[in-house]
Every structure is written in structure tokens, then in C-alpha cells.
Design a protein that fits this description.
The complex is a heterodimer of chains A (417) and B (88).
Chain A: H1 3-10, H2 26-40, E1 44-55, E2 61-66, E3 71-76, H3 78-81, E4 93-103, E5 108-118, H4 122-138, E6 155-160, H5 165-177, E7 182-187, H6 195-207, E8 213-218, H7 232-240, E9 245-249, H8 257-261, E10 264-265, H9 269-276, H10 280-336, H11 338-363, H12 365-370, E11 375-377, E12 395-400, E13 403-408
Parallel strand pairs in A: 3-5, 6-7, 6-8, 8-9, 9-10
Antiparallel strand pairs in A: 1-2, 1-4, 2-3, 4-5, 11-12, 12-13
Helix pairs in contact in A: 5-9, 6-7
Chain B: H1 9-23, H2 30-53, E1 58-63, E2 69-73
Antiparallel strand pairs in B: 1-2
The chains are: A alpha/beta (417), B alpha+beta (88).
């Protein structure tokens, strides 16, 4: 860098640092150096080993990148660093993309990092593996945690982006197969910074909205796009959902932790909807099966009735025999009690005879005759109680208290009543 | 949605299958069988009718700026109305 170049930096008439009188401020020096660096060195990739990695409360990361001969300070601001799936370990070999610059206030040469990638399997996999291990140890992916999906959901929530194709696919399948299902759509971002938190919020919202099941879905995308479904808050929210969750993220080959924590993973948004929506056609077939069973049942019942009648007719002699046998048995049993029973029957008989004799006395015509009345009868003893029964010259008998009198009818006279 | 549409299809199907099983019992009298059959047919008709006519709503759940949670009809999505789905 020539002195002339330096002069040009400060412009004419300004302090240029050539003499004590024109000395520049520290701030001007740093600012000038910063501009020089940024104007002359483009953004570039630098490879090195991470050391002294720190994260500030605001989410900025500070670290040193070094090799065996040199080192440089790096700053990774939160606006870019949120994309990091995991913080690298110290000693990890990484490449960073950024701008060499000077930190004005501290006068420090540093690289302002925009991206950071780990060599080898990469930070995505590192992060995934770490979280997977933690959550698995907690039992979040246990098959025993999986709840069965409702066979006939009446109300289903769909948590996805309002503008994604996945929502269209899910709605189409639900309407076609089970048009009676109420659908509750909850819009949330499904990629980018803060998406995992939105997923958690959406799941909490639909979880208390009285739905029978939830579909959490989004279409295909890059690993980075799908990353929010591997973030701890989203995965835990899926596991904590009070109703069963069907999860379909990305293409069939992608598997996210959210899907592992869900009650059911589906390969695509449409398949997720199919898992929850019973097919109306299949239900109609089940009704047909029932209707056939009803008809068969009635026919069988009628046939059974006929059969019973036939059997009864066939079995009649035998049943009579057995009835006789039972009767005999009862007789034998009673014979045993006979003497005692006879005695008491005699007692009862005597008492009844006494009662009947008394009543007979009261009713007998003999008692009436004793008081001086007579009864007319024909030769056979038939009662002659009306003038119609007497003819002039006919013979009849009068029964009196102590015998009978033979008599002849002179004439009859009817008395008016 | 009317009460008729609210019928619980799962319960309805379970009841129907129970009736069909009862009709299969060997100790069933003919009068009982006829009564069961008639009940079954009535319920079958009900279930078929429900399948033909029941239609659900498509709504959106949102949190308002005041933090209240509301549902409203989902607008700007036509998937619910396509593919010959019954009109609502």
C-alpha cells in the first residue's frame, strides 16, 4: 500500500497523519484499515480448526480458527449462526465462509463468518445424532408410546404451511374419502428460523381444540429446509401432543426426529390423510356385509323354529315316557308319607261331613213338612208345583210329615198374581 | 351440522354388528329374531343415509393479536370442494 493511496483514503484537507499536526484518531485509523481490508479482500472460504468456541446470550458465536502456524479470531452473528444445526466441538476441522475485517472498537483483525461447515459427516448429522441419542434414552421413540389412530375421527387438525402443496393434498384426500370429517387447519412456518417454535405453538393450539388426531406435514425440501422437524422443541411438542399425531415430512426417503416421535409416520401428506380418513366406499361395503348377515340370521332363525317343531313331534313318545317316569317317582315319594297323610285327610273328611250335614238339614224339605205343609208329586215322585201339572180326574200323591196320601184332582183354579 | 349428521358412525356400525351377532344366536325365538331384524334394517337405512349426506367443515384455527384462539372458515383453499366432494 503506497503512501499516496493512504492519502487518498482520508481525502484532501483532512488530517492525513503525515505530521504530528495532522495526526489521525485511533478510530479513523481502524476505520480506514477496515475499509481497506473489505475493499481489497473478497468473501472467501477459510479452513482451520475450531478453538475457544463461545456463544453469547444474544446467540452470537465467537471462536478462533487456527492451523499449526497461525490463528484468526472469528465472529458468527446470530442472524447467520441460527442455521447451525449444532455448535462444533473445539478441535473440529471446519471451513468457514466470510469476510476478513477489522473490529473497529477492539482493533482486532477477524473474520465475520456467514457460513460454517464441518468436514466429514457435517454438523447436521452431528446434531441429529446427539439429539436422537438423548431423546431415545428418554424413551421418546419407544413403540410402546405410540397411540393407535382413531378408526373414525370426526375432527382432524392439519398443522402445516397454509401456502404449501401439502395442505392441498391432505384436504383433497380427506374430502374424497371421508367428507363428514371436520378439518381444522393451523398455519405455521415449516422451514427457517423460528419454525420449530411455531410448530410447537400450533401443536399446542390444536391439541386443546377438541380434535381426534393431528396431521403434521410439509412437502419435500433440502436437509436444511426440513431441519426444524429435527429441532428439539418441535420433536418434544410432537411427543407431548394430547391426541395421536401422524407425521409426514419431505419425501419418502427423509426421516426426521419429529416423525420418529409421532404416533405414525406417513411417506407423503396424502398417505397421512389416508391413514386417518376411512374410505366411504369401504364403509358402504361393511354395511352391505351387515345387511347380508341380518338376512341370513333371520333365515336361520326361521329354519331353527321349523326344526324345533319337527324335533318335538319326533320326540313326543319319549317325552311322554319320561313324564310318566317322573310321575311314578312322585307317587312313590308320596306313598312314603301316606299313613300320616291319611290320618289328617280323615280328620279333614269328618269335619267336612259334619259341616255338610248341618247345611243339608237347613235345606231339606223334611223340615218344612214337619211344620204341617204337604208336597204334591206324581206317581214317580216328580214335584207338581203348578196348576198346569194337574188335570181333572188325574191321580196324584201328597207327601206329608209321616207318609203319603193318594188323591184325585176335582178341578183346578189359577190365581191371579 | 345437524344432530342427524352428528351420528356416531362407529357406534352405529358397532350396534349393527351386535344386532347381526344377536341374530345368529341359537336360542333366539322367532319373534325376537324378527324384532332384531327390523331394528337392524332401520339402523342400516340410517347409516347408509348418513354416509350419503354427512359433510364436515373446513376451518382455520388462529391466535388473534390479543392472544385469543378463534376458528373461522378456511378461505382461499378450494381442495375441499373439488373431486366431487358433497357440497356443504
Amino acid at each position: 500500500m503506497t503512501a499516496g493511496g493512504q492519502l487518498a483514503l482520508f481525502g484532501s484537507g483532512n488530517p492525513d497523519g503525515r505530521t504530528p499536526e495532522t495526526a489521525i484518531s485511533v478510530r479513523a485509523l481502524n476505520r480506514c484499515t477496515q475499509r481497506l481490508l473489505e475493499e481489497h479482500i473478497p468473501d472467501l472460504w477459510v479452513r482451520g480448526e475450531v478453538a475457544n468456541w463461545r456463544k453469547s446470550s444474544r446467540g452470537h458465536r465467537y471462536f478462533t480458527l487456527r492451523d499449526d502456524r497461525a490463528q484468526v479470531d472469528c465472529v458468527f452473528f446470530s442472524g447467520d449462526a441460527w442455521r447451525l444445526p449444532a455448535d462444533p466441538d473445539n478441535g473440529m476441522e471446519v471451513t468457514v465462509y466470510g469476510r476478513p475485517s477489522l473490529y473497529e472498537a477492539g482493533g482486532r483483525f477477524q473474520v465475520v463468518v456467514r457460513r460454517l461447515e464441518a468436514a466429514g459427516e457435517g454438523l447436521w448429522r452431528v446434531a441429529l445424532r446427539r439429539l436422537y441419542r438423548t431423546l431415545r434414552e428418554e424413551g421418546l421413540f419407544e413403540p410402546s408410546r405410540k397411540r393407535p389412530l382413531p378408526a373414525f375421527p370426526r375432527r382432524v387438525a392439519v398443522v402445516t404451511s397454509r401456502s404449501g402443496a401439502a395442505l392441498h393434498d391432505v384436504l383433497t384426500v380427506l374430502r374424497r374419502r371421508s367428507p363428514w370429517i371436520d378439518v381444522l387447519v393451523c398455519d405455521c412456518r415449516v422451514q427457517g428460523e423460528g419454525a420449530a417454535l411455531e410448530i410447537r405453538r400450533a401443536l399446542a393450539m390444536v391439541g386443546s381444540a377438541g380434535v381426534d388426531a393431528v396431521i403434521l406435514t410439509r412437502g419435500g425440501g433440502s436437509t436444511e429446509d426440513l431441519w426444524c422437524f429435527n429441532e428439539e422443541v418441535a420433536v418434544r411438542a410432537v411427543a407431548a401432543c394430547p391426541v395421536p399425531v401422524v407425521c409426514a415430512i419431505g419425501h419418502e426417503v427423509d426421516t426426521t426426529l419429529a416423525e420418529l416421535a409421532a404416533d405414525r409416520k406417513a411417506s407423503t401428506p396424502s398417505v397421512a390423510a389416508e391413514l386417518l380418513a376411512p374410505d366411504a366406499g369401504a364403509l358402504r361395503e361393511r354395511l352391505d356385509v351387515v345387511s347380508l348377515a341380518l338376512a341370513r340370521g333371520l333365515r336361520r332363525s326361521a329354519a331353527r323354529g321349523r326344526e324345533r317343531l319337527d324335533r318335538s313331534a319326533r320326540d313326543l313318545p319319549r317325552s311322554m315316557r319320561s313324564a310318566l317316569g317322573r310321575g311314578r317317582e312322585r307317587l312313590d315319594r308320596h306313598a312314603h308319607d301316606l299313613p300320616r297323610a291319611t290320618r289328617s285327610a280323615l280328620e279333614r273328611g269328618r269335619a267336612r261331613v259334619r259341616g255338610v250335614a248341618g247345611r243339608l238339614d237347613a235345606l231339606s224339605p223334611l223340615a218344612t213338612l214337619a211344620r204341617g205343609y204337604a208336597v204334591a208329586t206324581d206317581a214317580d215322585g216328580g214335584l207338581l208345583a203348578s196348576v198346569d201339572r194337574f188335570e181333572a180326574g188325574s191321580r196324584f200323591y201328597l207327601r206329608v210329615r209321616d207318609g203319603s196320601v193318594e188323591a184325585v184332582t176335582e178341578r183346578t183354579r189359577r190365581e191371579a198374581r | 351440522m345437524s344432530e342427524r349428521e352428528r351420528l356416531d358412525f362407529e357406534a352405529m356400525l358397532a350396534k349393527l354388528e351386535e344386532i347381526a351377532r344377536a341374530l345368529d344366536r341359537d336360542d333366539l325365538g322367532l319373534d325376537e329374531a324378527i324384532a332384531l331384524f327390523e331394528e337392524g334394517i332401520a339402523r342400516l337405512r340410517e347409516a347408509n343415509e348418513w354416509l350419503e349426506t354427512a359433510s364436515g367443515r373446513v376451518e382455520e384455527i388462529i391466535a388473534t393479536s390479543s392472544g385469543r384462539i378463534e376458528t373461522r372458515p378456511l378461505e382461499g383453499m378450494d381442495a375441499g370442494e373439488t373431486d366431487g366432494a358433497p357440497s356443504r
